[in-house]
Amino acid sequence: MFALIDCDSFYVSCERLFRPDLKTTPVAVLSNNDGCIVSRSSEVKAIGVPNGSPLFKVRDQLRRAGAVLFSSNYTLYGDLSGRVMATLQSQSSETEVYSIDEAFVSLHGLPRSSWEEYGLQLRSAVYREVGIPVSVGLASTKTLAKLATRVAKRGEGVCALSHPDCIADTLRQTDTADVWGIGPRFSRKLALHSVFTAEDFISLPERWVQQELTVVGLRTHRELRGIPCIPLERAPPPRRTMVHSRSFRGRMTSLEPLQEATASFAARLGAKLRRHELNASWLRLFLVPPRNSGLSGRGLSGSLPWPTADTRALIQLTHRLLSRLWDAGFPCTKAGVMALELSPRKVMQQSLLSQPPDPAVMAVLDAVNARLGRGTVRLAAEGVEHEWSGKRDLCSQRYTTRWDELPVIGEGAGR
DNA sequence: TCTGGGGTCCTAGGACCC
DNA sequence: TCTGGGGTCCTAGGACCC
User: What's A210's domain CATH number?
Assistant: First the structure.
């Protein structure tokens, strides 16, 4: 038995928290590079702008509606997400942080008759402590709790799917594509067999579902019938990969800026590995051509001399890989560095033949940058100007994590 | 002209081993 | 002419999630 707590239009809600003047204005938040819409206020949803739509396709429509746009500000969203999760953890010891804006809470031992009241309690606690509106769905499995949250968002903010009739009604009114675990491909495949709703789906025989949709589909099938298959994960499973990648403002036509970009990606990846107390044993560099070029991406992997998160080692290998991968004729619009074969820092295998770099150097670098801002101390290879860097023209302040960007109230506000 | 970034899991097929 | 059965590991591709 689970409650799913899902923040309403999370990124938009974060922006509005510090811009109460936008409470009733249509607001949308853009992806990295200001490319797509990734979060919409209810007013933007109402004018029919789909989530994920490329900005250039809906720009006029948004302008006519008087919408305000923001570049994504993950520093702000990450900080507010932490506050939401901490509030939920103060309400229950059995919580799973599922994504930046969602968490599951176990309802173990709580009678069905109290579900709704508990949902209301969680909802008001988060709004009181953080100021972010959330919807809560409660049900016997995670997949049903997801459905309940969809219902909650259309209505009162809380929906407990505790009665069989109520579950049956919901399944009848839900398209397969709106079920957690059924994506566009599976949904299209099901439609070919005249399966359109979640109700149609659960009437299919298990054997057929497993054959066509693998065990993943079978799990969804059972979860919709109230058989729990996906447990609460109180601790996140160990990470297997870590990536840093970005699109460029234009095309990379010469090697030097690409060297600079990939070095700074490797540096960001190193910092992230160190934050998670992980080392990588393998590194993969990949280059991506424009979406409609007909070309496929290129990648190359190489092993590090020891498991490490040292920026210097990561950049060195990245550049070695780049020199083998680089081809002036390849139209590179995006690149990334991926860390593979991750291991916890504390169980590092020593080498007989060579000494890994002293971790104290990176510790000092991280400490300085934590205090004075990211990139204050960096390697020369990362460059300075970053002219290749993508668009991010509409970004709000980091209100909660930078002294010099705190919101100002009263006289002189709105600078 | 312009379409993000970061993850996981499953399956099929090939290589290899005994 | 006739050539087994069982297992593991790896990779690429496909599907999903937020």
Answer: 1.10.150.20
